[in-house]
Design brief:
The chain is mainly alpha-helical. It has one domain: Ammonium transporter AmtB like domains (Ammonium transporter fold, Orthogonal Bundle), CATH 1.10.3430.10. The chain is 67% helix and 2% strand. The protein has 14 helices and 2 strands, in the order H-H-E-E-H-H-H-H-H-H-H-H-H-H-H-H. A two-stranded antiparallel sheet has the order 1-2. The longest helix has 32 residues. It is globular, with a radius of gyration of 20 Å.
Length: 407
């Protein structure tokens, strides 16, 4: 009944997306100051445990089971995977077991809240982060996953998001902006990355895993799968070189961290459009990502927002840009299940994409800010000045990333 090739490919894609969370931990861990390496890395790894538990209990059901509240969220019919057995096919592709689809989508749920952590590095208590991790998924991620991918409100309206420009990057990016405004600036804003090689390892794992993130979102093995795979690499490459060129021109030196950051910006930006646009469009999306995300990072600095690891500028703005450009470049010639964008006469689709992304950004920002206010009434969100000066590795976790006596 099930296609072994498709099932095997989707298990591989699931594994690739799972690898992205440790990759993100390495990426953020390298960017962190030496006293906060473990503090930021544990926030990614703990999501792998807590999110998996939540996904099994109710997360999958709330995202992909029926409609509740007018299509805003799913229902609880599939709590604990009730009614799903080894022979249950995935409704979107009967050649695929639903168990595999459940596992694949779980990896998206794991990495999305972890993306936010780079913004408030070394300023948030671990206890408050754990509460945040649970509430943010229930109140932000699950509704948008359902509305866009679970047959909910936005899907019914005709909004498209191939692999997470709205659901993952925009919501996380603007949640990050709300977080940094709430917790304020770091006391030591001059903290420099402790390990550029670690950033490079993290980027490599993210780039590699992103093939599963985007190509796997075809939920099949066909030409669209190959299109999404190639578009992912093209956009990342064009964005990386664009960022490198801009920085080289402005600061007179080619920066390795800039090249790596540009690649991630390109990956985030192509995500919503990967299976809906042509290869030349992916080139333009990559160039736009390199320029706009670079400008966003510098705007953040000018505004005084202490987004330590540029989550808003790279993921938030990248997700928004990709969703809007999907509304421009999408064409049914590339994917009959997609839509025609602005350049193909689809002005209505373009407007829907713009409205959806604006709504997602506002919702993600407002609910995150209100959530932090609520959490702070339960337990302090911000660490004390003493803990921040000491570094969270030692003050909160009692561990150090490196034996400095040996080094």
């Amino acid at each position: 009944m099930f296609d072994t090739g498709i099932t095997g490919f989707m298990l591989l894609a699931t594994s690739l997306v799972m690898l992205m969370t440790p990759g993100l931990a390495f990426f953020y861990g390298g960017l962190a100051g030496k006293r906060n390496i473990l503090g930021i890395m544990i926030q990614s790894f703990v999501s792998m445990g807590i999110t998996t538990i939540m996904w099994f209990i109710c997360g999958y059901s709330l995202c992909f089971s029926g409609n509740a509240l007018g299509g805003f969220i799913g229902n609880l019919d599939k709590m604990f995977m009730h009614g799903v057995d080894l022979n249950t096919p995935f409704a979107g592709n009967p050649k695929l077991p639903e168990f595999v689809f459940m596992a694949y989508q779980m990896m998206f749920a794991i990495i999305t809240p972890a993306l936010i952590t780079g913004a408030f590095i070394n300023r948030v208590t671990f206890k408050s982060y754990l509460i945040f991790l649970v509430l943010w998924q229930l109140l932000v991620y699950y509704p948008f996953a359902h509305m866009v991918w679970g047959g909910g409100l936005l899907a019914q309206w005709g909004v498209l998001d191939f692999a997470g420009g709205i659901v993952v990057h925009a919501t996380a990016g603007f949640a990050a902006l709300a977080s940094i405004i709430y917790v304020g600036k770091r006391r030591d804003k001059e903290s420099v990355p402790n390990s550029v090689p670690l950033i490079a390892i993290g980027t490599g794992l993210l780039w590699f895993g992103w093939y599963g993130f985007n190509a796997g979102s075809a939920l099949d093995v066909n030409a669209v799968t190959g299109l999404a795979f190639l578009n992912t690499d093209i956009a990342a490459s064009f964005a990386a070189i664009t960022w490198l060129a801009i920085e080289w021109y402005l600061v007179k030196k080619p920066k390795f961290v800039g090249l790596l950051t540009g690649a991630v910006a390109g990956l985030a930006t192509i995500t919503p459009a990967a299976g809906f646009v042509s290869l030349p469009s992916a080139c333009l999306i990559g160039i736009a990502a390199g320029v706009i995300c670079y400008v966003a990072v510098h705007l953040k600095n000018k505004m005084g927002w202490d987004d330590a690891l540029d989550v808003w500028g790279v993921h938030g703005i990248g997700g928004c840009l990709g969703t809007i450009l999907l509304g421009v470049f999408a064409t049914k010639a590339m994917n009959a299940a997609g839509a025609d964008g602005l350049l193909a006469g689809g002005s209505n689709f373009f407007v829907k994409q713009c409205v959806a992304i604006i709504g997602a950004c506002i919702y993600g920002f407002v609910f995150t800010y209100l959530m932090l206010i609520l959490i702070n009434k339960i337990t302090p969100v911000k660490v004390s000045d003493v803990e921040e000066d000491m570094g969270l590795d030692d003050s909160l976790h009692g561990e150090k990333a490196y034996d400095e006596g040996v080094l």
